[in-house]
Amino acid sequence: MPLLDFARRAVRQKITDVFNDAEKGERPVLRRADSLIAPDSVAWTVNGDVVTMMIGGVSGLLLQMLHPAVLAGVWDHSDFRADMHGRLRRTAKFIATTTYDHAEAGRAAIDKVNRIHARLAGTLPDGTPYRVSDPHLLAWVHVTETISFLDSWIRYAEPDMSMARQDAYFADMALMGEALHAAPVPRTRAGAEALIQSYRAELRADARTHEVAAMVMRQTVGQASVDLAAGVIMQAGMDLLPAWARAMHDQPERLPRPVMRAGALGTARFIRWAFENSPNKSIWPAGVTEYP
């Protein structure tokens, strides 16, 4: 095996191990032509880039937790404090399944999340009741996640992305938001930005917010080489936030911004190189049911 091919395979295996628990039989999601979202969509391009999706995922999570009811839902009904890596892994798997796997698997993943949401509720510290299935809260989760994925892609992969392609991404992802019962669900960049602004008065940052954000920022995997890159990715996620959201989080910058952004860009390009000609990039026929 040529040395470059060996290196690529080694890097891909390390990334696969980060996102899939082999002991539980987890494998990467196969890309299929019969997926919920079409293979020629903008979402297929954006959602398939490992590093920009990680950066966007961190940024989206930091935005989401600024809403007290969303933070309470995570705080009250999640094991994130014991297994933050697992939570991030499950989110990545959900996005991959609903974007690339066959439509039946995508719908099953969405139905599972909807069933979980339907039974979760609680009370905020000020006594206000909340329901995780509230369409208003789900809309905040959807729009912050979607715009964060897209903005990460623009910054580290396609800085000259046209507004038409950006709007197409929101339209692609609206299918997922609507299936998860979020409302309203924006279908354009302008609609997403307007929706985020409409939530500003509801957002808060308190001791609990800062505690969870600090946990996100110091997340490690346990492998030195991966954790070095993870530190850059976490910082890039915070850096991706709008200025007002960064100010609310009030987290220290651990790396100078130019160094951090150069590191994130270099990491993204390196991982793209590693996945060239990978089975991850192929579209598989229905008869193939196991990852090669």
Can you describe what's shown?
There is one protein chain. This protein is about 60% helix and about 5% strand. It contains 13 helices and four strands. A hairpin with a 5-residue loop joins strand 2 (about 120-125) and strand 3. The model has no long low-confidence stretch (mean pLDDT about 90). The radius of gyration is 19 Å and the shape is globular. The two termini are about 20 Å apart. The protein is mainly alpha-helical and about 290 residues long.
Topology summary:
Elements: H1 3-19, E1 31-32, H2 42-46, H3 50-64, H4 68-77, H5 84-100, H6 103-118, E2 121-123, E3 129-131, H7 135-156, H8 163-179, H9 189-198, H10 207-217, H11 224-240, H12 243-249, H13 257-274, E4 283-284
Parallel strand pairs: 1-4
Antiparallel strand pairs: 2-3
